[in-house]
Every structure is written in C-alpha cells, then in structure tokens.
Amino acid sequence: MEPSAREPLVRKTSFSYRTFPESTGKRLDKEYLRSLHNKRLYLAVFAAVLGNFNFGFALVYPSPVIPALEAHPSPALRLDQHTASWFGSVFTLGAAAGGLSAMLLNDRLGRKLSIMFSALPSAVGYALMAGAQGIGMLLLGRVLTGYAGGVTSASIPVYISEISHPGVRGMLGACPQIMAVLGSLILYALGKQGQDSPPNCAALAGLVLDWRWLAVAGEVPVLAMIVLLCFMPNSPRFLLSQGKDDEALGSLCWLRGRDTDYTREYEQIKESVRKQSRRVSCAEIKDPFIYKPILIAVGMRFLQQLSGVTCVLVYLQSIFKKTSVILKPEYDAALVGLVRLFSVVIAAVSMDKAGRKILLFVSAGIMLVSNLTMGLYIHFVPASQNGTIANKTLVSSANLPAEPTNYITLIPLLATMFFIMGYAMGWGPITWLLMSEILPLKARGVASGLCVVVSWLTAFTLTQFFLRVVEAFGLEVPFLFFAVICAGNILFTGCCVPETKGRSLEQIEAFFRTGRRSFMR
Fold first, then answer.
1. Coiled coil located at which positions (predicted)?
2. pTM assigned to the model
3. Which of 78, 170, 375, 516 is the 20 to 30 A CA-CA neighbour of 289?
4. Which residues on neighbouring strands pair with residue 191, listed in sequence order?
5. 60: closest CA among 438, 406, 459?
6. Among 270, 274, 282, 256, residue whose Cα is nearest residue 443
C-alpha cells in the first residue's frame, strides 16, 4: 500500500516544472473536446470576424487611392506629400481612439455589442469617403473607419477567445488576421484608377473599381456583420461577470451543443469568474497576476507595430513604384496580399500543433532577414540597376516612370513577400491571440483596449514619419530600423512569452497567479 499512497505525490512532483501542471490540463479532457459540435461556434466567429475583414479593407485603402489622388484633376482632392502622409496615417489615430473607448465599451456593453457598435462609425466613414468633395471629408472618413477598426481590434479577439474551447482556440484565434488579410487582398484586387483621373495615369490602373466605389464596397461587410451578430450569443464569461447565470448557460449550450457535457465547462468558467467578481483596482495592478500578462500583451503589440508592417501595407504600391519591381505596383500588391493570406492560413492550421512560441521565433527570423535584405538592396544597388529614380521620396510617383530595367528588381518584391509571409505566420495573428488568452478576466476589457491604444499610437507615429524619414535619409533607413526591431522580437519571445497551446483560459490565469518562475522553463 505504501507505493500506491506515494504515487500521487511522485506524479505531482514530476510535472512541477512544466509550463502548466498536468492536473489542470485534464479538466477539459480530450473526450469532451471531441464530443463538441463546432458548427455554431464557427458561425459566431465568422459573424464577428467580418469586422476584421472590414478593418483590413479600410487599413490599406490608401495603397491604391493615394497614387490616384496625387494625379487627381481637382485641386480640392489632389494629394501632396503632406496630405498623403496624413491620409495614410490618420486611420491609426482613429484606431487608437477606438481602442481607448473599447476599454469602457468591452466591460459595459459586452464584447458582442461593442463589435456591433463599431458598424456605425464605419458606415458613416465609408459614406464620407465615397461622397468626398474635399480632403477634409476624406480625412474624417479615414478617422471614423479607423475608430471602428480600433473598437473591433480590442473586442473581436476577446470575444473569440471567450466563446472558444482549447481544442480550436488557436485556429479560431487566427481567423481575425485571416479575415483582415482577405479584406486587404480584396481591396488590392478591386482598386483602380479613378474614373475622373487623367488618362495618362494608366500605369496606376488596378482591376475593377475607382476610389469612390471602393468606399461603397466597404459598406457591404459592415452590413453583413451587424445582421449576423444579431443572432449570435454573447460571451458566457462576460454574462457570468454580469450575474446573468442562466443566459450564460444558454449561450454555452448554444455554442457547444445541447447533447454535450457543457455544464462541466460552465462550472469551471463560473468558478473562475467568481474568483474575479470585482473589477481590477489600482492597488491590484501591483499584483504580478495582473501586471505581467498586461506588460507582455502591450509589449507584443508595441513590437509588432515597430516591425514596420503598417507602413509597408499602407505605402505598399508607392514602395514598389519607387523600387521599380518587375511587375506593375498594383499587381505586386495583390501578389503580396495572396502570400499574406496563404501564410496566415498556415499559421491557423499549425498554431494548435506546433505551438505559439515556435511560430513567433520563425516569424521574427523571416522578418529580420527580409527587412535587412530590403535595406541593403536599396542602399547598395545603384539607381541605374534597381530602377529607382530617387528613392528619397515616395509621393508624386504618378509622374515618374517605373519601367524595370533589370531582373534584379525582383529582390524588393521577394523581400517584401517574405516579410509579409513571416509577419502573417506569427507576429500578425499570434499577438492578437495571446492578448486575448493571457489577460486576466477582470482586466481583459480594459487591458485589451490599452493594447490597441498602444498599438495604433505606435502605428500612427510610424506612418506619419515614414515619408519624412524617407525624404530626409532614404528608403533604406526605415527598413534597417525594422530589421533591428525584429531582432528584439526574437529576444522578447524567448524571455517573456509563455506557451499557451492547448490550455483553457482558466489554466492560463492559474499559471500567472502562481508566480513560479519554474513554470516558464
């Protein structure tokens, strides 16, 4: 009898150095996860991520529009370097304001209603841009669509993580990024020279729509999102935090299936919510359980933007125009969008198998090499070979020839494709997923909004000064800076980011509550 009495102690000790204890890992066993019906869960996620589709569409709207408006016949709508910089960057300022308001909306309205609320500023913003008679209307439209994007950036990942179970949370957590990429790709495919642009701008021609109709097209996913979300449940965790136990049980039943053992999962969620029934106070911020996951989430969002992805996406066609790659800029942009979509799908499929950290390492490594290659290419390859007439400016490219003179101009296209591929494989989707996974429930609404504010303020600063840095120092300087940041991303991942693959949100919170450094090994 003595060996059997000691056996539990031996098992407990043998697993004490794992990131998460095995005893908690069996709370939601594999048999229960296999028994779940995911069709309704997938439908709810699809309804929510239409907001991300709209976000991706709106984010890169300037990419085909800036070249068209630089050559616009009307002075009221023609962009110069200053206004083009604001048109590209003011979206991120609106997104920061949206993230700030989401800190309140997420905890007051709930995750689902916050997403639905974002439809209003988005629809108004697109209407302003579609009917713009001056630059002021264009900028206001960009601010409003950015505000909507900031709200959805803070609300949708939290909503998805709270309605998902560990078996599919990694895959579903990548869906916001997939839909954002798809939205950007559709924008690149639809973008076209404006019908009121002069005929000599044929080099800027895209595929289908001019810039006004692009704004009208942006209304479609907004309307589809709000209609579908009317029929979707709210997050069970949010409902429990509001004391709506019966509604929370009904929501979980709808998501998991009536013939499953969903009540067991419900009791675990209820117990976790009970321990965090109060909102986070200023005194509790000193608790490592609160501040460590917040610092990790904020740090990841900060480093993600410093890697330069927003600048590259917003000014993509202009960058290709200046480096004179072998295809037309709009086709290069669409090709990069396809690569980005393919890569984020790979991340979604492999995230729950390979784990989060390994993908973050691979992602940062690819981005580092790509940015370094781009910077060195622009610096060392003479303009006569790379086709760059003056790489110290990106605006007014409508008036510059862009005929490639050498196949060496494939290098910037390939470097950009690999950069976007690396970003989409890890630092794109996983930063959003980890934000929603590691933040404690009592601070999740406020902290997710804080992450979005930091993220988009950083993006605004970069996109606002990107053109000025290029004008003053050359196009290679930003890319070399982004390469240094990507090296920092690798160090941050190794030192600070925990592995959350296959763990419930309650287990992740328990991990941070223990404060045991051995769990990080």
1. none
2. 0.72
3. 170
4. 209
5. 459
6. 282
